[in-house]
């Protein structure tokens, strides 16, 4: 019986190398060609993809924030308010809604959003907050100015 010496034991990588490579190959399973089958190429591509995924998670958050801000600005301009004035007067009225909720209201629930706008305009007029303008003509086109909200 041959007992492995220390030098042979160090050289034999055994199952650890198999599982390490398997993890990389599983991440590269959807690639095409040698990027999928050759370890040295697969590991480079997997590492690059993981870096892009990390950056992408941050960029997705920034993109969604910009989208919500744009939608909210469009909704506020329609009723003759700036977004800053709208959010400031809502905060002064103890209504704490974030950009996402406000933009969803502007898109999917225009009557609720108009109620918030009216509340905000009244507060801005009472406290003389700058940023009030005349409402847009689009309200009359869509008939939103004729809504009676109690």
UniProtKB/TrEMBL annotation:
What biological process terms from GO does the record include?
Answer: translation
The record's section on InterPro entries has:
Ribosomal_bL20, Ribosomal_protein_bL20_C
| Pfam families given in the database record | Ribosomal_L20
Keyword match Ribonucleoprotein: yes
State a GO cellular component annotated for this protein: ribosome
Q: Which UniProt keywords apply?
A: Ribonucleoprotein, Ribosomal protein
Q: Which domain of life is it from?
A: Eukaryota
GO molecular function list: rRNA binding; structural constituent of ribosome
Specify whether Ribosomal protein is a keyword of the entry.
Answer: yes
Q: Which family does it belong to?
A: Belongs to the bacterial ribosomal protein bL20 family.
Entries under NCBIfam families matching the protein: rplT_bact (TIGR01032)
- What is this protein identified as? Large ribosomal subunit protein bL20m
Q: Give the taxonomic lineage as stored in the record.
A: Eukaryota, Metazoa, Ecdysozoa, Arthropoda, Hexapoda
The gene name reads LOC119631499
């Amino acid at each position: 019986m041959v007992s492995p010496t220390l030098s042979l034991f160090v050289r034999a990588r055994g199952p650890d190398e198999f599982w390490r490579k398997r993890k990389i190959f599983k991440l590269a399973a959807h690639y095409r060609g040698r990027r999928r089958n050759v370890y040295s190429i697969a590991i480079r591509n997997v590492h690059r993809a993981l870096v892009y995924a990390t950056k992408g998670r941050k960029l997705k958050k920034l993109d969604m924030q910009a989208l919500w801000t744009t939608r909210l600005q469009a909704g506020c301009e329609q009723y003759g308010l700036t977004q800053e004035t709208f959010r400031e007067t809502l905060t002064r009225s103890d209504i704490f809604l974030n950009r996402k909720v406000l933009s969803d209201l502007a898109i999917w629930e225009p009557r609720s959003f108009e109620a918030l706008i009216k509340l905000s305009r009244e507060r801005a007029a009472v406290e003389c907050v700058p940023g009030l303008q005349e409402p847009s003509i689009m309200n009359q086109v869509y008939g939103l100015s004729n809504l009676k909200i109690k």
